[in-house]
Amino acid sequence: MFKQLIAVGILTLTGLTATLAQETRSFTDDAGRTVEIPTKPLCIVSLQDLAITVPLLELGVTPVGSHGRTTAEGQPFIRSSDVLTGIDFDNSDIKFVGNLPADVEAVAALEPDLILTTPWQTAPVEQLAAIAPTVVLDDGARGDLGMHDILAELTGTEDKLAVLKARYEGQIAQIKRLIDTANISVNVIQGVDGQVAVWHTYGALGKVLRDAGFTFPDRVNAIKGGDPERLSGEALPELDADFVFATYRTDTLETPADAKKFLEEVLPNFCEYLHACRENQLIIVPREEASASSYYGLGVLSYMIISQISGRDFVPMQR
């Protein structure tokens, strides 16, 4: 252990020396900490795969190391990245630095000039800050796509972000042109441990639906903040809509049948209590695209909504 601490200390000094040689600027992070960071970081370690690594890759920035998950066989992966960016540990130079907590020694070994973390990551900030300038970004407070804005500022990729935003604006305009969104109600639900979870805005899918102008149930509009409400099966009629979306996890090899199974655990024969399900207007989609902080995901979802709803004869719910 003593030798390991010495090794980390040597790597820390190396990293700090490299950072001091760079031009820096002051930045106040979401934890209220003022940090001197490189104006042009070259070796970034990301300690949240969904909230930081995937957005960085979409902005054209490849971190030297990333937090990740592991399969049952112990194989590390960057959650959702294979379907959203095509990049993962096995086909890139990105090094796996652990999950929760991240391996501080593995981070130090990469000699980063900037470490990006979130309140969700349990690796101690003070230990990370001893290796390199460390910025805490609260993805919960910033919102899913809000992380792209601050990451573009930190990495000088605002031009790339502008292109991604312009493409998304075009996709939303396309939905509005093809679908009378103002007169169609929608919702996104999920069965979790015998309860139905519902969000005011469910990740990327919720953003597309709201930006396109669809209406939501009053019970959903009343939800405050980004966390879900968990309700009993009795609340299902209040969550009903013309179209209801549910999701399933592809990274754990779930299928649409699992999404239905989890809703059955909320209320047996749940379909009888939802107009959308009775009329075959329950749409089940992969969670990786539906919940990710990804402009590619927004595009996939925009196309999915057009293909599922535009030009379709459907049964409106009684208002």
Automatic annotation (TrEMBL):
Keywords: Ion transport, Iron, Iron transport, Signal, Transport
Cross-referenced Gene3D superfamilies: Nitrogenase molybdenum iron protein domain (3.40.50.1980)
One Pfam family in the UniProt entry: Peripla_BP_2
Compartments, as annotated in UniProt: Cell envelope
GO cellular component: outer membrane-bounded periplasmic space
InterPro entries in the cross-refs: ABC_transptr_periplasmic_BD, Bact_iron-sidero_bind
Record domain Fe/B12 periplasmic-binding: where: 44-313
Biological process, per Gene Ontology: iron coordination entity transport
Family in the record: Belongs to the bacterial solute-binding protein 8 family.
Identification of the protein by name: Preprotein translocase subunit YidC
Species of provenance: Devosia riboflavina
Biological classification of the source: Bacteria, Pseudomonadati, Pseudomonadota, Alphaproteobacteria, Hyphomicrobiales
